[in-house]
C-alpha cells in the first residue's frame, strides 16, 4: 500500500515544530478554516478580496494599516500616527518590487528576496504579524501572513516575529527570512503534493462547499460568488450551484446589474418577460 503523502514545511527547523501533517488531515484543516465562523476566512480573506476588487489597494495610505488591523479584529489607532509618509513610501516601494499576481512558489531567488524584504518591514508596534497581513492585501499570492501561530509552527515562540530576542541563534529579521524561504522552497519543490491537496479538498467538497457558501451568503449574491472565486478549484461548478441557490432565494434583482449586462445571451426558451 502506497504511504499517504504528508506536508512538512518546518523540516530542518529547531524547537517544537509542527512536523509532518498527513495530507488528509491537512485537507480537513483547510475545510474547517473555510467553514468555521471563528476563522479569519470570511473576515479577512474574503473581505480582502472584495476590497481589492473595489480598487481599495491601488496605493498605500494611513488607512491601509487601519483596514488591515480592522480585518484582523484589532483596531489600533495609535499606530496610524507612526505610519507616517516616509514609512508609507518605504512600504510601498518594497511592495512595488514584488511582481503582481506572482505566486511565491514560482518566484526567482531575487523575487523571494523581495518578499522577505517586504515581510521584514516594520516600525514600533507593527512588525511581521501586522505588516504581513497588510502586505498580503496588496500581494496575496506572494506574501505569507506571518502571525504568531505560523511562528510557532516553525518552532519559535508566539511573539518571536515581533520581538528582538535571539532564538536558536537568529534575530527577528533572520527568523522572518528563514520562514519565507522555507515556504517558497517547499511550495516549489512539492508542487505535486500541493496539487494533490487541492484535489483532495475540492473533489470531496464541491457540493458541501457550495451549499455552505450559499447558506452563509444567502442574502448577498455578490459575496456568495466571490467566496467561490476565492476558494479556487472548480469555480465554474461551485459558482453555478451557489448562484442558482442564492438567486432562487432572493430573486434575480439581487444579481449586480453590471454582472447581468455582461452575461452571455440566454437562449430564447429561458427568457422571461422583463428580462434584460
Fraction of residues in helix: 55-70%
Proportion of β residues?
under 5%
Task: Give the count of helical stretches.
Answer: 13
Mean pLDDT: 85
In whole angstroms, how far apart are the ends?
57 Å
State the secondary-structure class. Answer: mainly alpha
- Series of secondary-structure elements, N-terminal to C-terminal: EEHHHHHHHHHHHHH
- Strand line-up in the sheet with most strands: 1-2
Quaternary organization: single chain
Coarse shape: globular
Low-confidence stretches: none
Write structural notes for this entry.
This protein is mainly alpha-helical. It has helices at residues 23-35, 41-53, 62-71, 78-82, 85-96, 109-120, 128-138, 148-153, 172-189, 191-216, 221-231, 235-250, 257-262; strands at residues 6-7, 21-22. The protein has a two-stranded antiparallel ribbon. The radius of gyration is 21 Å and the shape is globular.
Amino acid at each position: 500500500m502506497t504511504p499517504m503523502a504528508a506536508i512538512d514545511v518546518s523540516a530542518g527547523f529547531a524547537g517544537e515544530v509542527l512536523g509532518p501533517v498527513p495530507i488528509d488531515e491537512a485537507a480537513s484543516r483547510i475545510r474547517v478554516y473555510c467553514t468555521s465562523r471563528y476563522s479569519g476566512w470570511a473576515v479577512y480573506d474574503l473581505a480582502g478580496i472584495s476590497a481589492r476588487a473595489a480598487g481599495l489597494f491601488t496605493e498605500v495610505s494611513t488607512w491601509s494599516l487601519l483596514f488591515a488591523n480592522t480585518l484582523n479584529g484589532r483596531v489600533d489607532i495609535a499606530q496610524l500616527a507612526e505610519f507616517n509618509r516616509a514609512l508609507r513610501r518605504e512600504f510601498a516601494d518594497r511592495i512595488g518590487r514584488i511582481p503582481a499576481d506572482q505566486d511565491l512558489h514560482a518566484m526567482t531567488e531575487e523575487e523571494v528576496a523581495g518578499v522577505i524584504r517586504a515581510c521584514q518591514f516594520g516600525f514600533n508596534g507593527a512588525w511581521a504579524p501586522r505588516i504581513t497581513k497588510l502586505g498580503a492585501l496588496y500581494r496575496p499570492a506572494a506574501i505569507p501572513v506571518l502571525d504568531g501561530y505560523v511562528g510557532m509552527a516553525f518552532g519559535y515562540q508566539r511573539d518571536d516575529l515581533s520581538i528582538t530576542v535571539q532564538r536558536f541563534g537568529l534575530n527577528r529579521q533572520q527568523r522572518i527570512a528563514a520562514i519565507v524561504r522555507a515556504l517558497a522552497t517547499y511550495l516549489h519543490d512539492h508542487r505535486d503534493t500541493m496539487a494533490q491537496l487541492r484535489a483532495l479538498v475540492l473533489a470531496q467538497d464541491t457540493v458541501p462547499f457550495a451549499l455552505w457558501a450559499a447558506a452563509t451568503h444567502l442574502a448577498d449574491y455578490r459575496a456568495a460568488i466571490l467566496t467561490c472565486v476565492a476558494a479556487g478549484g472548480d469555480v465554474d461548478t461551485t459558482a453555478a450551484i451557489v448562484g442558482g441557490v442564492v438567486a432562487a432565494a432572493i430573486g434575480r434583482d439581487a444579481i449586480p446589474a453590471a454582472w447581468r449586462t455582461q452575461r452571455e445571451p440566454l437562449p430564447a426558451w429561458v427568457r422571461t418577460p422583463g428580462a434584460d
